[in-house]
Amino acid sequence: MQSQNITLIGVPLDCGKRRRGCLMGPDAYRTAGLSEALQDLGHTVRDTGNIGPDPFTAQAHERLHAREETIAWTQALSRAAHAASDTDLPIFMGGDHALSLGTVHGIAAHAAERGRPLFVLWLDAHTDYHTPDTTASGNLHGTPVGYITGRAGFDGFPDVPHPVPHNQIAMLGLRSVDRAERAALEDTDITYVDMRHIDEHGIAKPLSAFLDRVTAANGLLHVSLDVDFLDPAVAPAVGTTVPGGATMREAHLVMEMICDSGRLTSLDLVELNPFLDERGRTAQTMVDLTASAFGRRVFDRPTRAY
């Protein structure tokens, strides 16, 4: 992989769900050596520190958790993502998955200005395709894909002038999809690959097909990596654990293939809750996976004692 100018942006967003702890994520990535790992691979890395939400006034809502705060974060993150993408490859250190409401919104504006299509690779146990009207939990970290594709119901959120077309989104690792999301997804041409498909056919073939489409379209590629994409046996520090996730080897293969494609232009690291971790094990795993996406190979990977 060619040397990149990488901007690290800390996003201590913890309002997308009710279980607290993701606000500690950015510092956990710093402590686990994310910047140093990328620099060791020859990249130029700039850590801009943590950002915060726009000013907001919290209001009680009958169904939704922290709606106004989430809107405020979406506004701030959209601007930050747009600005960082003009010069660098941004990595957003979260923070729960509600941060992707803002990051993808801003990246989509950047892609539109460049006249290039934006593709999104969603590595997650969940589809996050809900809207504020369909979510049963009221947790807005389950809505970013619904938002960025332009689904209705996001009153008060920034308009979505550049929705990501459904056929430019691929979801890998799914294993917790409720009935409403499943019905809605089946009416779209999103590529969705659940763990049974991966068990039966492997993870490389569907990912390779998607990356080939990105390359053929000369697209930008945004990757959103949720800790719960991984099996909780190897990555326990997440509040939404779902057994049966990707193995370490499958996850590294995904990131290595992303690197080989040369198409990665932005990255979310989300749902790390250090409060639930075991001696920094999950933070270190996420750092190692990120390094694989930026050029580290099997023989370069250090042994971990945890």
Fold blueprint:
Elements (H helix, E strand, L loop, with lengths): L4 E7 L13 H7 L2 H7 L3 E7 L16 H19 L3 E6 L4 H16 L3 E6 L20 H5 L20 E6 L4 H8 L4 E4 H7 L2 H13 L3 E7 L21 H14 L2 E7 L10 H13 L13
Parallel strand pairs: 1-2, 1-3, 3-8, 4-5, 4-7, 5-6, 7-8
Description:
- The protein has about 300 residues and is of the alpha/beta class.
- It has a single domain (about 5-300), classed as Ureohydrolase domain (Arginase, Chain A), CATH 3.40.800.
- It contains 10 helices and 8 strands.
- Strands 2-1-3-8-7-4-5-6 form an 8-stranded parallel beta sheet, with helices on both faces.
- α5 links the parallel β4 and β5 (about 170-175).
- The radius of gyration is 18 Å and the shape is globular.
Can you give keywords for this protein?
306 residues, alpha/beta, Arginase, Chain A, 8-stranded parallel beta sheet, 10 helices, 36% helix, 16% strand
Radius of gyration over C-alpha positions, nearest whole angstrom? 18 Å
**End-to-end CA span:** 28 Å
Helix content: 25-40%
Percent range for β-strand residues: 15-25%
The CATH superfamily bears the name Ureohydrolase domain
- Large-scale geometry: globular
SSE order, one letter for each helix or strand: EHHEHEHEHEHEHHEHEH
**How many strands in all?**
8
Number of domains: 1
Q: Could you name the ranges where pLDDT drops below 50 across 5 or more consecutive residues?
A: none
Query: Architecture, according to CATH?
Result: 3-Layer(aba) Sandwich
The main sheet orders its strands as 2-1-3-8-7-4-5-6
Mean pLDDT: 95
* CATH fold-level name: Arginase, Chain A
- How many helices in DSSP terms? 10
- Helix/strand class: alpha/beta
CATH class: Alpha Beta
Characterize the largest beta sheet: strand count, sense, and whether it forms a barrel.
Answer: 8 strands, parallel
